[in-house]
Specification:
two-stranded antiparallel sheet; mainly alpha; globular; 7 strands; 604 residues
Length: 604
Amino acid sequence: MDKGEIIEGKVDWKGRPAIKGKHGGMFFAMLSLCTAGFENMATVALVSNLVTYLTQVMHFGISDAANQVTNFLGTGYILSIPIAALADMYLGRPKSVLLSACFEIVGLGLLAIQAHSNNLKPPLCNLYDPTAHCIKVGGGQAGLLFLGLYLVATGSAGIKATVPPHGSDQLEEKDPKEARQMASFFNWYLFVGGVGTAASLTLVVWIQDNKGWDLGFGTSTFAMIAGALLFILGLPRYRIHIIQKVNPLIEILQVYVVAFRNRNLKLPEDPEELYEINRDMEAAPETEFLPHRDIYKFLDKAAIQTTPITQQRTPNPWKLCRVTQVENAKIILGVLPIFCCAIIMTVCLAQLQTFSIEQAVTMDTRITKHFHIPPASLGIIPIIFIIGLVPIYDRIVVPFLRRITGHPFGITHLQRIGIGIVLNSLSMAVAGIVEVKRKEVARKHNMVDAIPLIQPLPISVFWLSFQYFIAVVADVFSYVGLLEFYYSQVPRGIKSLSTCFLWFSFALGYYLSSVIVNIVNSATKGITSSRGWLAGNNLNTNHLNLFYWLLSILSFLDFLVYLFLAQRYKYRPIAQRGTSTSKVSNEDNKEREDIEVHMGEVIE
């Protein structure tokens, strides 16, 4: 693609055709990622310290606060799907980014106002003092708290749903140079997010713990404002994806509806008899054609022609679907098992954002005689490692592995995800061992009933860095691997929704975490003195170590299921456009599968 050439399917902010060399490119892709970095700076501190804020300021119990955090995170992730659909169909991605930023700014502002005003929160009280009678937040105060939190969740969902696809819009896959840059894009997305997270876990958390929650939330508000302003600076030079007139999710839903409606019909022996538009007469140049595959045959019934189709009459899509439409539905169905395996990974991650913070509150947080690390900032250690690792991985490790494996990404997406699942199981096992050590120290020094923060246990908070380190390295593999996998596999029409598969699995994982906590407490209520493994406000009398080991076992079982599924996964077939007249067969895709599917070879 030469400079000055019009970029197909992209326009500028005034609706004019986007021009190569004038609009987009790696610089503007990175500029849009800076918005995501500032969003991380604004929200990671909130998430990391939210359990502490809810228990110490709003007087929730520990398990209730942990569930509120996971519900908050789950809602934030699940909202990314409808927001992405709205961005594609009505608003466009740049408008969606800016509207999402506005929601987040207002939400953080409300939290700052509530934290500043004594009339908008419960009276001060030490929740850990058994003689104190703390009043839990309620009424209008609770309404203001949840309004602020869920405005932040909505804004964060919009940023996550629209910034990555908008950034990838700045790079054109048909251009060899930009195609190579696209391969690094999601790695740099993780890097920029890591920088924002580092700033959040150091500066913002320190302000929250030492200068006040109001100033902490205020700092987050200004960070989000800075991210929005940076995004606005790039508006005149962005390549903007043209809003789609048809919802591709509806097209996939149509396949399932029609297949169910035709469930009693018999499939033709020859797949060529299934309905597909005429490539030469009816197809637009950018119309995709996928070959028929002999999998999930029950969906093929959506393409059974019961009456002859003429060129003058377009069939009702709720009564007849084309083969390519059916194959796209098959792709989504094939991705779902991998998607389900990612849910347990999020359950493990949720514990590091809730119970591990409560562990840190009970421990010695001193680094020097006069400096204490805030418990919520402990994650900075692996984040610093990530910031250093991503450039090394992208510039050194991937090229090295590429020479060995011949795969453009060094290792396959499925291999990268599998490594992440194993490390998740290991992180929970290590977390259980560290919790046993922490409780032994409490018993040995007769501090089982010690008040957190006021009477810290004589054990360094850096013991927790082991579980944090392993978990975040697991996140590097699984997080980027899932993003790459979804982006490469989903149908072209829903590329912008591809990242939402990851956020949706996160949402279900956080919700499942709340469910598991409640089930575990109910199941162990009658067999523990604390009335449940995770019940009450004293971690020294709870059985958090057993809960961690339970999650480690579940994660390992999840890995075994994942291996079975990954070995049998068939990659998305190569698509052809309407301008091509050659027939696409399943054999044409064998070379691609030979290159990409290495998981089975590694297992053997």
